[in-house]
Amino acid sequence: MYHTPQFNKDQSAILDLIRFFAAFLVLGAHLLTHFYDTAYYPYRQHYYTNLGSIGLGIFFVLSGFLIAFTVTRKQTSSKTYSFEIYLIERLTRLYIVLIPALLIALTLNMMNDWLALRNDVSHFTFKHFIVTALMLQGIRDITAHGETFALIEPAWSLNYEFYLYIIFGLIALKSSSASGARDWLIRSSLFILTIGIALRLDHLFYYAYNWLIGVIVAGWFVHGFRWRATLWNVTLVASIMTAHFATSPQSFDGIAWWVFPALYGVCIYGLLLWFDIQSVPNVVARLAKRLSSYAYTMYLIHYGIIHIALLMCLKYGILPGNSETALLRFAIVIFLMISVNLLSYGLSLITEQMTGQAREQIIRLFKKPIPLTE
């Protein structure tokens, strides 16, 4: 049975919540690893690191799912949907937030130089700006991970996303501007170049696997593979995930790298089926949409803000370097959590939430015939 490639409002709300939840886990991990450092909280560090790993794993599975689903839907509804349009959509999504985030990182680096308590602090330079803007961060023989990201550290994951976007688009979509031998030459050359660069990334296959899980789940959803979304099944999967949160103090390795992305995919699929027959309260749906509208912005800008806040606390004696400040540390973490969310939402009003308008303008310009000059 073929499933119409469309979400209802309840399913959209759940996906919005998952998107925000993934970004929030990364925010929480960086807050806790900054303010509960290994010197005084060595065991907890493993849990905090895992929060970020889980959030990133969910993000990649969800990304693969949404991209595959969106491409399938647009191919079904429009015969003119092409690789060029797809690439414009993806690049506007990435860069409309990335460029402002890079400018913020450069600004925060000035504060970092002023506040730094050590001389060996990594600096975010114009070189790092260009490398990250070109999606070359972390590519072996071009940059080093620690050197490149500094105050925009989460940007290390964007190039995985970028290259997976291009590879998937080249496989799934046709070109609108070339045909025959020319189309084959252009597409194959771009494909080989993309693969060649991507293979210089460490852990590429792991994140590609995460993304592929999402693509497979999108295929199940669109083409009607049905898993019975009973309360028992949903509870069982939720229990497995809860057990993982509670009993995995060590970072992801071994079989967990392969099992848990599959569990994330199953959870997403099960929730979509469950909310095909269940409703989300309108207030929750509105909140979910609002939260997801700035999740990407929050993901990119939070690290630098947290880093500068910690330096300020240490420089001005707000947070002494000992473990006898548990309540104060907790208060600072909560304050920063709220502040980062508010700042991210404010910035998103002129960046992330304007993606649709920017995309339409670029596509309109792209489709507009170029006048011939004499």
Provide the fold topology.
Elements lengths: L8 H27 L6 H36 L5 H33 L10 H8 L11 H5 L8 H15 L7 H19 L5 H20 L7 H17 L8 H19 L7 H11 L2 H21 L10 H23 L6 H13 L7
Helix pairs in contact: 1-2, 1-10, 1-11, 1-12, 1-13, 2-6, 2-8, 2-10, 3-4, 3-6, 3-12, 3-14, 6-7, 8-10, 9-10, 12-13
Strand-and-helix sequence, N→C?
HHHHHHHHHHHHHH
How many separate domains make up the residues? Answer: 1
Strand content: under 5%
Give the biggest beta sheet: none
Q: Helix count?
A: 14
The level of helicity is over 70%
| Unreliable spans | 247-252, 369-374
The outline comes out as globular
How many runs of DSSP E, i.e. beta strands?
0
Structural class per helix/strand content? mainly alpha
Mean pLDDT: 80
**Rg (C-alpha, Å):** 22 Å
The end-to-end span amounts to 57 Å
Features:
374 residues; mainly alpha; 71% helix; globular; disordered C terminus
Task: Describe, in plain words, how this protein is organized in 3D.
The chain is mainly alpha-helical and 374 residues long. The protein has one domain (9-367). It is 71% helix and 0% strand. It is built from 14 helices and no strands. The protein has helices at residues 9-35, 42-77, 83-115, 126-133, 145-149, 158-172, 180-198, 204-223, 231-247, 256-274, 282-292, 295-315, 326-348, 355-367. Helix 1 runs antiparallel to helix 10 and helix 1 (9-35) packs parallel to helix 12. The radius of gyration is 22 Å and the shape is globular. The model is unreliable at 247-252 and 369-374 (pLDDT under 50).
